[in-house]
Amino acid sequence: MTSETKPSGPLSDIRVIEMGTLIAGPFCGQVLGDFGAEVIKIEDPAAGDPMRQWGRSLPKGHSPWWPVIGRNKKSVTLNLRTDEGQQLARKLIDASDVLVENFRPGTLEKWGLGYEALSKTNPGLILNRASGYGQTGPMSHKAGYALVGEAMGGLRYITGEPDRPPARAGISIGDSLAGLHGALGVMMALHSRQSTGRGQVIDVSIYESVLTVMENAITEYDLTGYVRERSGSILPGIAPSNAYPTSDGMVVIGANQDTLFQRLCDVMGRPELAQDVRYRNHLARGENQNELDEIIAAWTVGQTTSGVLALMDAYGIAAGRVYRPQDMMEDAQYQARDSIVEVPHPVFGTVKMQNVFPKMSETPGQVRWPGEGLGAHTEDVLAKVVGLSAAEIAGLKARGVI
After folding, report:
1. Options 49, 175, 203, 293, the catalytic residue
2. What pTM was estimated for this model as a whole?
3. Which of 78, 34, 73 is nearest to 52 (CA)?
4. String of b and e for 274-304 (b: at least 16 CB within 10 Å)?
5. Is 266 a catalytic residue?
6. Residues 252, 179 contacting (CB under 8 angstroms)
């Protein structure tokens, strides 16, 4: 079985219990597993994580999402709504370093698995809790999905075209940001534990994870009263920096610094634009952004994409294609850095997915196996970690606990 690949990476001595479903908690577990942590994912025996069935299509009856978010994890089925299931979870947690969960606040406590109870027997335990609004405050009890956190954190309001309702990114970016913040919190808590010997609770909310990347939106409003609005494909006041049409597609070009803009003008055969009072410095270009973009687009549309990119490269101007998955798979930069990896899969034969990032020179992470079948590791984990016998495991099966 592919999951028997020897663990490696900087976290290979860390054991993580992952509870919860969908993305915010499991993405944190994915990141930790990518860098070698032993991630034991506890799933409901009746259905497992809904991500096993999510996706636009189900090739061969399997979700193309699950191989990614389930990678490097051991699937253990456990009915946490039963006393026996809760007792087994407690034993697994007692033998672990980290617990990752993204239930609605109060759920762990309802099962007798709150941090106060768990830390009595495992004082070094680190508990990462992801939720829509955090563990405290008047909204903490509410259900919180990524779309709500993205809206509350300010991202939705500024995303899209100015004459249309707010748009969303084509991914659940709020969940992923919460997962990354959770993984970062785990790293800091592990470092702190080295000197204190004690674990702690990491309280991650989706809306605050989004708020963190909102740059100076709050400060700018506080000082000036300015509210960022939707601006489509541009950043207001930053020009030129946009997507431009070509004769066979489109390119993105960033030449908003004075020296880069001078080079772009030379490339277009319009050196006089760099001295034009409307465009000669950063502030002027920002004020005349639309007109400038029209000038550049009128030039790029008469060029091929590869022709524009070759010229931009020759003049040291940042530019690139707008990539789709097929472009990524064919791209020389992606191939040179193994940005996409092909992993053996029991159903698909092999499956391609994004590799592990960031790249580390001494302790790199790796995709050791894709997301595997529901409960594939239950017996092995319960035997090795909890110490149950084959007869005891059979009894748990018969009672519907696993």
Report:
1. 175
2. 0.94
3. 73
4. beeeebeeeeebbebbeebbeebbebbeebe
5. no
6. no
Give the model confidence (pLDDT) of 184-238 as tens digits.
Answer: 999 999 999 999 999 999 999 999 999 999 999 999 999 999 999 999 999 999 9
Q: What is the pLDDT of residue 5?
A: 58
The 3-class secondary structure across the chain, one letter per residue, is CHHHCCCCCCCCCCEEEECCCCCHHHHHHHHHHHCCCEEEEEECCCCCCHHHCCCCCCHHHCCCCHHHHCCCEEEEECCCCCHHHHHHHHHHHHCCCEEEECCCCCHHHHCCCCHHHHHHHCCCCEEEEEECCCCCCCCCCCCCCHHHHHHHCCCHHHCCCCCCCCCCCCCCHHHHHHHHHHHHHHHHHHHHHHHHCCCCEEEEEHHHHHHHCCCCHHHHHHHHCCCCCCCCCCECCECCEEEEEECCEEEEEECCCHHHHHHHHHHCCCHHHHHCCCCCCHHHHHHCHHHHHHHHHHHHCCCCHHHHHHHHHHCCCEEEECCCHHHHHHCHHHHHCCCEEEEEECCCEEEEEECCCCCCCCCCCCCCCCCCCCCCCHHHHHHHHHCCCHHHHHHHHHCCCC
Superfamily of domain 2-213+336-398: Crotonobetainyl-coa:carnitine coa-transferase; domain 1 (3.40.50.10540)
Report how far Cα 351 is from the mean position of its chain's Cα atoms: 19
Cis check: omega of the bond before 325, within 30 degrees of 0: no
Strands 38-43, 15-18: parallel, antiparallel or unpaired by DSSP?
parallel
The two structure tokens encoding residue 80: 């946490």
Q: Kindly list the domain boundaries of the chain, sorted by start residue.
A: 2-213+336-398, 241-323
| 10 exposure class (CB count in 10 Å sphere: 0-12, 13-18, 19+) | middle
CATH class of 241-323: alpha beta
Q: Contact at 8 Å (CB) between 214 and 157?
A: no
